[in-house]
Structure formats: C-alpha cells, structure tokens
Write a structure and sequence with these properties.
Layout: H1 2-20, H2 24-33, H3 35-55, E1 60-68, H4 79-86, H5 92-95, H6 106-111, H7 113-117, E2 123-125, E3 132-134, H8 135-141, H9 150-158, H10 178-190, E4 191-195, E5 202-208, H11 211-233, H12 235-268, H13 275-312, E6 316-320, H14 333-375
Antiparallel strand pairs: 1-5, 1-6, 2-3, 4-5
Helix pairs in contact: 3-14, 12-13
Length: about 375
C-alpha cells in the first residue's frame, strides 16, 4: 500500500511539473506566425516614442553642496560619543541646541511661500540668447509645454476668468493671484534642499529647462539660505548692539553737556576763593566724571555686543560651488524611444498569445448565444 501511494504521489508531482513548464519553443513559433502584426505594432509604438521623446522638454539640474558650522550646545556629551551617535543618524547636539533653525528644517524653509516669493525678482540670463529677465518672467514665458498638454491648456484658457490687475500691481503674499500661485508651485517643484542627518551637509538642487538659469538660481539659493541663517543666528546680538549703541550715544551726549557746564563754570570762576563755589565746582567735576564712566561702560558693552555678532555668525564651507551643467538630467530621448518600442512589442506579444484567443472565445460565445435565441 505504501509503495502504491508513493507511486501515485510521484505521478501527481510529475504532472504538476509538466503543467508548470512553459513551452518556449511553442511561444516563439506562435510569435513568428504573427511577425508582420508584431512588426507593425512595434513600429507604431516606436514612432509614438520618438514623437513623445522629441516633444518632452529637456531639463538641466545644477547643485550646490554646503557644510554649515554647527552651533554649540547640547547635552554636554563628549565629541566621541556624538560622532558614534551620528553614524546611526542620531544628532545628540542639535536636539538641545538653543537654535530653533537647524539643518533638518532647511527643506521646510525652501518650500515655504515666503521664501519662494523672494525668488520672483532674481535676475537670470538665458544661455542661448543671452536675454536677461526676472525668474518670474522666465517661468511664465519660457516654460516649454509638450503637445499632449495643449488640449488641457486651451480648455483652461477657454474657461479662465480674467484676473483684475494692472501694471502697478504689487505682490501680496497674503493674497496671491492665480498666476503667482502657479509660479510658486512651479518653483517649489523645481528646487530642493537635501540634508544629510549624519554630517549635516546641505545639497541644493535646481532643475530648469535652461542650464544657465539653473546655475544662477542655485547660486542665489545658497546665498539666500546663508543670509537667512546668519540673520536668524545674529538677530539677538544685533538687537543688543543697536541697544547699546543708543545707550552709548545718550551717555556721550550727557557727558558732553556735563563737560561744557564744568568748563564754563571753571572759566568763569578762576580767581574765586569761596568754599561754596569750590564745592559746586567739585560737584560738577564729579558729575562729569560719573557720566564719563557711564560712557566708558556703554562703549565696552557696545564693543562686546559687536564681537558677539561676529561670534554668532556661522561659517559655511562651500564643498561644491554652482556651475552650468552640460548634461541634461532628464531621461534621454533614446531611452524613451526604446521604452516605447519594448512596450509596443510586449503588448503585441500578449495580444497574440492571450488576448486574441480570449477575444475570439468571447465572439464565439456571443454568436452561440445569438443563434440559440434565434432558434428559440
């Protein structure tokens, strides 16, 4: 009994293996029978691929790599332990840093409307014509559109409401027009800021249909980001410096007034020997000296605040400066044409092997049902 059961099991496994085998030779023979059909389908797909590839706009990407100076602070841990934690993507120092703006939120700064709007007036220069215009004008006027987007564009233009505006229209971040909002979205999709959590290295990428414009905007972005961070880091120190400057000017004016009063009193009472007059002279001298000491203190505080600004100003190391890219970052046109050609061949092959049989089977079933209805 055991032998018979094992024989049946072996026979069943062999039948399963045979059913799971793919008849490659049969498939190739079937495809060869329909070679003309496959050639036509593949040729049509290749033509469509070439048309799509030629109409798809090229894009160039310029990038900048920066290494910012990290602010002091943290948990008081050793640098070795901090380095070990950074290898696992953990930044122990930044979590307790006094700074509210740290590298991890730089991408959020880039995507904010307040930051993007400041790029509207950036002057750019086209690489082919040398024409100079603002980045806003470049996005609106020089954007290339593939042919398959024209129907939707014409449809939108047909039902588009006329925006009220004039040449004296001023940009209002609180209430952007439809066109300004679309430009913001276009800029937001073309710029990116990546931060390495381990090393805090910042990579800024700008993609545009003009390589020179991409490089100009990338350079502008890195300078704007540096200015943004420097302004934030030194804001309190600059406020303190302005405050001590005002106190210094006030103390200096009071000292000059006291000095004039003392000098005028001494000049007018040189030969007087009365003790009351000498006492008043001493009072004026003491008051002048007091105001002089206050002025010196304000001078010291002002110089300390000025030094604090320099101390709080972060340094940025430029690892890779922006340059005009010479190779397009978009998908090569040859690859697009090859993908469409392969897709056409695969679709044609699936139709020959499976689709045609299913279609013929449904047609036969439909004809059988129709004949049965007629006979009834």
């Amino acid at each position: 009994m055991q032998r018979s059961i094992s024989v049946h099991i072996n026979i069943g496994n062999m039948e399963k293996k045979k059913s799971m085998e793919i008849d490659v030779i049969g498939i190739l023979q079937e495809l060869w029978k329909h070679k003309k059909y496959l050639c036509v389908v593949t040729f049509i797909a290749a033509v469509v691929g070439v048309i799509v590839a030629l109409n798809k706009p090229k894009a160039w990407t310029a990038n900048v790599i920066l290494a910012p100076e990290m602010s002091s602070g943290g948990l008081g841990l050793s640098e070795t332990l901090g380095d070990m934690a950074s290898t696992f993507g953990i930044d122990l120092g930044s979590k307790s840093s006094v700074d509210a703006i740290y590298p991890e939120i730089y991408p959020d700064i880039f995507s904010s409307t307040d930051f993007i709007v400041t790029l509207f007036d950036v002057p750019v220069e086209l690489s082919k014509t040398g024409e100079k215009k603002t980045y806003f004008q470049h996005i609106v006027l020089d954007a290339k559109m593939p042919f398959w987007d024209y129907p939707m564009f014409w449809l939108k233009q047909l039902f588009k409401k006329k925006e009220e505006g004039s040449k004296d229209h001023k940009l209002n971040i609180f209430e952007l027009t439809k066109g300004e909002y679309n430009v913001c979205m276009a800029i937001r999709s073309s710029i990116s800021c990546l931060v390495d959590k381990k090393t805090s290295v910042i990579t800024i990428n700008v993609t545009d249909n003009d390589p020179k414009v991409a490089a100009i905007v990338a350079d502008t972005l890195q300078s704007r980001l540096q200015k943004y961070i420097v302004d934030y880091r030194t804001k309190k120190a600059r406020n303190d410096y302005d405050y001590y400057c005002r106190l210094y000017e006030e103390s200096r004016d009071r000292y000059h007034k006291a000095q004039k009063l003392y000098a005028a009193y001494v000049d007018g009472n040189q030969d007087v020997t009365l003790q009351s007059l000498k006492s008043k002279q001493d009072d004026l001298e003491n008051d002048m000296q007091l105001k002089f000491n206050v002025m010196n203190q304000m001078t010291t505080q002002m110089q300390a605040a000025k030094a604090k600004i320099q101390e709080r100003t972060p340094a940025f190391t430029m690892i890779q400066s922006p340059s005009v890219p010479h190779k397009a970052s978009s998908t090569p046109r040859s690859v697009i044409a090859m993908l469409f050609t392969m897709l056409g061949f695969i679709i044609g092959s699936l139709w020959v092997l499976y689709g045609k049989a299913l279609w013929d089977g449904r047609k036969k079933n439909k004809e059988i049902k129709e004949t049965e209805k007629v006979t009834e």
